């Protein structure tokens, strides 16, 4: 219970420090929260708290998504989404190409490489659910699947570190900065979520916003509860994806409810829950996995991630896509829906939040097809 309380309140301490130390605020509360979680994982034995960490991770992101979406300006989101769909398509192509090139490079060094390639593509264009579906489709063993899941977690953590800490700076070397397509009247309607600094979270403890926070939080809880109930009617293999899709749908519908959309606190309340999600995720880091790692298989994973990011960046440069849209689309493919608010928070670009979630959902839809196709092509190479 004490450890759960620490995970719930530590983001508040990080925000408090960042609000008072400009250098920390410039780094951003999302990277600081990840760094704090990694520091805890490396310095303490947290193996006894895995269930608490996982539960907080799942509950916090489930409640955060509708809270954030309630505040979304959907008309502006559609305007800003002009390049997001193309960027996502380029990301999917990049993952598939990198995976097939990796098959040529690691042929003979990685066992069951076609199955590995297919499952990796499923995970990095959709989600872990897609990886499981492709495991069944290709007849991969349970042992191989569990190894893939473990390596996926390890390398996804590394990917997120790059995106959150230096992604914008690196992408900016070859891609232009993000330029909003719309200004003016939209800014007046979204002024309550425009503060990217740590001080923006101060509204959560102001008495004037408590009633709105309670209403928004209750509505988010209702969204999650109904989504879980409905998804429970589906086969277990699809219930996780269905839950995320339903929560997202209900959150978007909530943006049309005037009292929810007008809340001055729902966005920052959702982002606070995202910070809890980041902290819980980071404390799950287990470096002992590296001691028994199959380095050929690890090398294949690293090649896919680095190769896909590099190829995707070059394609985005060719098609004139900006750095933030590139990073959000890359995250949508490789990390899926729950991490889109994390990435947008680290980029301090909320205009791409709804488009990012939309294209990440697209990844769920096509991940199985792409994984099976790549596995079939790899088998013939």
Automatic annotation (TrEMBL):
InterPro entries: DUF819
Signal peptide residues on this chain, from the entry's feature table: none
Record keyword Transmembrane helix present: yes
Keywords of the record: Membrane, Transmembrane, Transmembrane helix
Transmembrane residue ranges: 30-49, 61-78, 84-106, 118-137, 143-166, 209-232, 238-257, 269-289, 295-315, 327-348, 354-379
Superkingdom to which the source organism belongs: Bacteria
Name assigned to this protein: DUF819 family protein
Species classification: Bacteria, Pseudomonadati, Pseudomonadota, Alphaproteobacteria, Rhodobacterales
């Amino acid at each position: 219970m004490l450890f759960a309380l620490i995970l719930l309140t530590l983001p508040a301490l990080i925000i408090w420090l960042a609000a008072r130390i400009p250098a920390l605020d410039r780094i951003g509360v999302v990277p600081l929260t990840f760094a704090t979680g990694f520091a805890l994982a490396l310095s303490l034995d947290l193996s006894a708290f895995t269930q608490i960490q996982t539960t907080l991770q799942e509950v916090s992101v489930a409640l955060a998504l509708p809270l954030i979406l309630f505040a979304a300006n959907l008309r502006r989101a559609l305007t800003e989404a002009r390049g997001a769909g193309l960027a996502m398509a380029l990301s999917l192509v990049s993952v598939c190409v990198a995976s097939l090139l990796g098959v040529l490079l690691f042929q003979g060094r990685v066992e069951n490489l076609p199955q590995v390639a297919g499952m990796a593509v499923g995970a990095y264009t959709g989600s872990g659910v897609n990886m499981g579906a492709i495991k069944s489709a290709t007849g991969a063993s349970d042992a191989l699947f569990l190894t893939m899941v473990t390596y996926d977690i390890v390398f996804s953590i590394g990917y997120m570190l790059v995106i959150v800490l230096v992604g914008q700076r690196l992408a900016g070397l070859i891609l232009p900065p993000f330029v909003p397509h719309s200004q003016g009247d939209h800014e007046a309607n979204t002024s309550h979520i425009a503060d990217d600094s740590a001080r923006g979270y101060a509204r959560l403890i102001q008495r004037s916003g408590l009633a709105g926070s309670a209403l928004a939080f209750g509505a988010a809880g209702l969204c999650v509860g109904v989504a879980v109930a409905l998804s429970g009617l589906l086969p277990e293999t699809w219930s996780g994806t269905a839950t995320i899709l339903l929560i997202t749908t209900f959150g978007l519908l909530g943006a049309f409810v005037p009292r929810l959309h007008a809340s001055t606190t729902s966005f920052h309340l959702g982002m606070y829950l995202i910070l809890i999600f980041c902290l819980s995720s980071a404390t799950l880091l287990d470096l002992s996995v590296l001691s028994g790692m199959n380095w050929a298989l690890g090398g294949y994973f690293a090649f896919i991630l680095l190769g896909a990011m590099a190829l995707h960046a070059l394609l985005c440069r060719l098609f004139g896509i900006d750095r933030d849209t590139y990073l959000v689309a890359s995250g949508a493919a490789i990390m899926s829906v729950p991490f889109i608010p994390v990435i947008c928070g680290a980029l301090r670009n909320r205009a791409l939040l709804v488009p990012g979630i939309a294209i990440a959902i697209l990844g769920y839809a096509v991940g199985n097809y792409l994984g099976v196709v790549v596995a079939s092509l790899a088998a013939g190479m």
